[in-house]
């Protein structure tokens, strides 16, 4: 299986980094980190999925979506996860919380899209820190679109936020964009921010951690959704806001979030 061969190949990355400097040396690794090729069928997927979501956004206020994250190169578990979601008939769409890949190689993005494309429902993504490695951001933008974007569904606004720091040369995320877009102005029943790293994650310093949670409180946000830690968590980390973090795909869990006009609930699903 090509994907298993790839996983074995990643174990020799350290060797490659050495032999790459030897003139005339033929590298054993098949996929270059500088390759940003994206098959036409895997381009602009966010726009395509938003069209699909809009087509089902009719005459209802309640809905359910599944949240998964950190699939990396755990392809067998990822296949099982998609099958489990497909076995349900109550999911309107799926959000992936980032780290679609391990090394941001174009082939990893292709394999991710081949698997998640088997979903019976639309899907949307945020970018993870592993997806920012090398030319990963360029591949992500070709494959999906902007790394910061907003979409709405049945009275709920989702703010999809690129909050990666270390892999962006230690630059802070676009907090001003984020703060502006998590405004409600009483137009929506809920505003739900989605980003890869929770505010207590390793890339947030104490100042940014405080800034993030204060923005949640100031804007009246009730639920904030993340991945990255590879460990499931749901609770009020800072006393007021519900934070949801799902485990990575090998943990074999995901969350189903139920939304209606006035409330929401979170269910952990083990598969």
Descriptive report:
The chain has eight helices and eleven strands. The protein is of the alpha/beta class and 271 residues long. It folds into two domains: 1-30, no CATH class; 35-270, Purple Acid Phosphatase, chain A, domain 2 (4-Layer Sandwich). A five-stranded mixed beta sheet has the order 3-2-1-10-11. A three-stranded mixed beta sheet has the order 4-5-6. A three-stranded mixed beta sheet has the order 7-9-8, with no helix packed on it. Strand 8 and strand 9 form a beta hairpin. It is globular and about 50 Å long. The relative contact order is 0.15. The model is unreliable at 14-29 (pLDDT under 50).
Set out the fold topology.
Blueprint: H1 2-10, H2 13-19, H3 45-56, E1 63-68, H4 75-86, E2 93-96, H5 106-116, E3 123-125, H6 136-143, E4 149-153, E5 156-161, H7 175-181, E6 190-195, H8 206-218, E7 223-226, E8 233-235, E9 242-245, E10 253-259, E11 264-270
Parallel strand pairs: 1-2, 2-3, 5-6, 7-9
Antiparallel strand pairs: 1-10, 4-5, 8-9, 10-11
Helix pairs in contact: 4-5
Strand order across the largest sheet? 3-2-1-10-11
Q: How many domain modules?
A: 2
* Tally of helical runs: 8
Q: If you consult CATH, what is the topology of the largest domain?
A: Purple Acid Phosphatase, chain A, domain 2
Helical content class: 25-40%
The helix/strand order is HHHEHEHEHEEHEHEEEEE
> Largest sheet, if any?
5 strands, mixed
Structural class: alpha/beta
CATH class of the largest domain: Alpha Beta
Taking the alpha carbons of the first and last residues, their distance comes to 23 Å
Strand content: 15-25%
